[in-house]
Specification:
about 150 residues; mainly alpha; globular; two-stranded antiparallel sheet; 2 strands
Length: about 150
């Protein structure tokens, strides 16, 4: 979570190098760990799933760095992900298009590795409504911020 990546500015579409902005739930649960607070079972599960995902993503980035950088420079990462999702995961072209509709463009090596990890055995943590409810009750997040 501390590596710098090529990222796409959500507003301008410009590329820049920096750290990604983690999900609010990840920040809260990780903050509790850093502060030495006890974690609920829901928080432990979320953190475990997050670590497994980040580990899978990092392993993929390290193993395929040269290939990903070359494909990024040639503008081929989105096509690579489309092929992976269709050929290895059996996703239909319509579902792939819907899935990629909200992705930043151009596809960056980090985002490609994120989705390869997610669909390749290291899924991103699922948002638990019970965990969200717990954090709202603890006043660590506001319901309005989630809308």
């Amino acid at each position: 979570m501390v590596d710098t990546h090529v990222l796409v500015d959500d507003t301008t579409g410009e590329l820049y190098r920096g750290r990604f902005t983690p999900d609010q739930l990840d920040v809260i649960v990780w903050g509790k760990v850093v502060d030495g607070q006890d974690l609920s079972q829901l928080e432990v599960k979320h953190l475990r799933d997050l670590i497994l995902h980040e580990n899978a993503e990092g392993r993929y980035l390290r193993a395929a760095k040269k290939e990903l950088d070359k494909a990024f420079n040639e503008g081929k990462l989105e096509d690579m992900l489309r092929s992976f999702l269709a050929e290895e995961k059996g996703m239909s072209p319509a579902k792939i298009n819907l899935f990629l509709e909200n992705e930043p463009h151009p596809m960056t090596p980090y985002r490609y590795a994120h989705w390869r990890a997610h669909f390749g055995g290291g899924p991103n943590p699922k948002v638990s409504t019970d965990l969200v409810d717990q954090l709202i009750q603890e006043k660590l997040i506001n319901y309005e911020d989630l809308l």
